[in-house]
């Protein structure tokens, strides 16, 4: 039985359909990240699970039981908001224990639960302070503590790190991962930050315009993007996408004389004359040393940027651009010509007409 099941959830505001049929089933202990750009419906879906918004149709089940008719307080779900939503005039101790206090949990039991959560979150020394005497990261820990003490079946997080500065965000990300590994709770987490999604999730649902574009493990989403949208959204710098045409069993890169072989696993998709988008991740490119081969692309270097761990290099192939993430000591200068080599397995082919990845036949061979 799924810990959380979302069945064909739809939501309309007036005549506008914001969620267009969402289906997800989560096993206990999964960390699902809802990833997508602003306005795609992530928060709406989270709010429906929490009971803060009503679905137009569909169902949500926790532990096999429908919860849509259940009051938010009784759903056995705890939500952590971006804004923390702490009570300013209560101490950290009372903020964390507030939900238990409201449910009439005796003071000594409450106290034990609060200390246990505070210890996990390393905020035991802050229990007598008020929220105004805390940093952003500490406030976020209190908000998480308040959710933890309720020991819910499902945790919901709505962009919990977006108010923190970059360094703290990284720290809290690691902290959340540690907590999840330790407690093995079921989590649904909303973000538009793809690094957060890649590092935290056991599965990612990439959302677009009220639909799930792809649902998969971080590795699947990164290595086998189902659509051009997912390929472009996940990864920074994003996947290179070269316009090309299937020509005599080759990929003819548009507006150049360059032809590269169609990888064997895509041969069944190659219809002579059809347009194709060739996807290749920047880190899959390297500067070719010997003579050019049919697994390399002749380029002219345009911009070279040293980020520290890598040299991010933008180059031109005909009128199109390619980005390569190269080792930092690579010697390259503007206007230099060279070849970027790659392995055949690094190529991903997409149909520009549908935006979908061509089927990869390697698994059927
Ligand atoms: N109460 C409402 N009335 C009308 N439209 C709404 C309401 N709430 C949300 N919407 C619309 O529904 C769409 C999805 O909103 P939602 O907040 O779920 O997106 P999101 O993916 O969480 O975006 P963000 O990352 O900006 O929070 C948006 O177009 C939004 O304008």
TrEMBL record:
Keyword field contains Iron-sulfur: no
Annotated Gene3D superfamilies: 2.40.50.100, Nucleic acid-binding proteins (2.40.50.140), P-loop containing nucleotide triphosphate hydrolases (3.40.50.300)
Alphabetical list of CDD domains matching this protein: ABC_MalK_N
Its membrane topology: Peripheral membrane protein
Places the protein is found: Cell inner membrane
Keyword terms of this UniProt record: ATP-binding, Nucleotide-binding, Sugar transport, Transport
Domain ABC transporter per the UniProt entry, residue ranges: 4-234
Domain of life from the UniProt record: Bacteria
GO biological process, one term: carbohydrate transport
A GO molecular-function descriptor: ATP binding
Family: Belongs to the ABC transporter superfamily.
PANTHER family assigned: ABC TRANSPORTER ATP-BINDING PROTEIN, MALTODEXTRIN IMPORT ATP-BINDING PROTEIN MSMX
Record's protein name: Multiple sugar transport system ATP-binding protein
Native organism: Mesorhizobium sangaii
